[in-house]
Design goal:
By secondary structure, the protein is mainly beta. It has one domain. 8% of the residues lie in helices and 47% in strands. The strands form three sheets. Strands 1, 5, 6, 8, 9 and 10 form a six-stranded antiparallel sheet that branches. Strands 2, 3, 4, 7, 11 and 12 form a six-stranded mixed sheet that branches.
């Protein structure tokens, strides 16, 4: 019988498989096909008295990105998984041209236990929420950033706070300046574009990233 704590989405992770285009932010794959895209962003999660834990999580968050792309002229939804680095950044290289959105994520809490957060993205008013199932569907009706610029889709910095009542608070930043987390840590992060430029000065993506400054 589920107790209150288990009702707060106690999820045990099975094996997680990542698509070939998933990369860590510090090792961007070189540009592939002429019109392929690079999707970048970051996720930081504050846990406030979740499972009795107050913590800031940036590393190892499994992020679900959903794209609406054309496959042989037919619109299709595709879901990609990518894991954040130690500062919360993620990148998907060489995905097909299309529209992309942050659909949800799975954040580690205790060992293999995870919390799953999802946004149905039905419209501009849709909110992120905790759900019991670890499954995140590959469908989006609303794209906040529908167009790429010079082959780059920038999903920006995404900050989430999950409280003891299962409520999810989401804020988005172009850059993070002197932001205090629930643990008292002060975050200062450049724009997502500048981060990847700094980390990948010799990448074939550099000229496209610089045009997004």
């Amino acid at each position: 019988m589920w107790n209150k704590r288990k009702n707060f989405v106690l999820l045990i992770t099975a094996a997680v498989f990542f698509v070939q285009c998933a990369t860590t932010s510090r090792g961007l794959k070189e540009p592939g096909k002429k019109y392929s895209y690079l999707v970048i962003g970051s996720v930081t999660v504050d846990l406030f008295h979740c499972y009795g834990i107050t913590a800031t999580v940036r590393y190892g968050i499994e992020v679900a990105i959903v794209g609406k792309v054309l496959v042989k002229g037919v619109p299709q939804f595709q879901r990609y998984w990518v894991t954040t680095d130690d500062r919360g950044y993620f990148a998907l290289a060489n995905v097909p041209p299309g529209k992309y959105a942050l659909k949800g994520f799975r954040v580690p809490v205790l060992g293999n236990i995870q919390i799953t957060v999802i946004n149905e993205l039905k419209n501009a008013r849709s909110k992120f929420k905790v759900q019991r199932s670890p499954y995140i569907p590959a469908k989006v009706n609303y794209f906040k950033y529908p167009k790429a610029k010079q082959r780059i889709v920038n999903l920006r910095h995404n900050y989430f706070l999950i409280d003891s009542d299962n409520l999810v608070y989401h804020r988005e930043f172009f850059r993070i300046q002197k932001f205090r987390t629930v643990t008292g840590e002060i975050l200062d992060e450049p724009s997502v574009i500048d981060y990847f430029i700094q980390r990948n000065p010799h990448s074939g993506w550099l000229k496209f990233l610089e045009k997004n400054r």
